[in-house]
Amino acid sequence: MAIRAFPDLIPKLLGIDGLRFRLLGNKLMSHALPIVYLARHGETAWSLTGQHTGLTDLPLTERGEENALALRERLSGLNFAKVFTSPLQRARRTCELAGFGAVAEVDPNLVEWDYGQYEGLTTAQIRVKRPDWQLFRDGCPGGESPEQIAARADAVLGRVIPLRADALLFSSGHFLRVLAARWLAIGALDGKYFLLSTASVSELGYENDFSQPVIRLWNDTRHVKASSNLGGSSSKTRLREDSL
Question: pTM (2 decimals)?
């Protein structure tokens, strides 16, 4: 499935031609441009063990709920035209604890990658049979391909871009990494470069005008308790959480 360059999608979603798009961008240079905020769900049992958690509907751990609550203060004072959440309980619960449960809309496209036959397995277990396996390149047998994830990410962006206002998304790690790649007009494969921690906040925005999508902030965990980042977990555990 061919993936189109994302900047070409922006003027189409705004309903304007290329020339008017450039003029609009220049006109908006002196004004604040919208930001899409990304919130990854809090810790789960499988994020700690490094097991691929796609459609398995796991709850947050106790510490996951504490860090989801920390998102409330982190996001306080911000106003959002729309808030969207994955239907999976780990994202919905994070959204609720962060204070947006009453206003959030469920978007099925925000669910995590369907890992198919690899659901519940660690990368090490998968590579016993497929030593060169890479999720963002190969996808999962019986699950979704990178192209399918990219198409879902484009569908989500197709909802938030026309808002021309700040929006907040609650979802899972691998999906949000592909979403960031698509925002930058690159393929799902490049999602491998964006590690993302549980309960983190990231910001997608623009530089100067709508034709220049950028990452404003990535994987901010300053609000997360230190015990979750360092004291309570080994560096290996944190890497597993960031990777899944």
Answer: 0.84
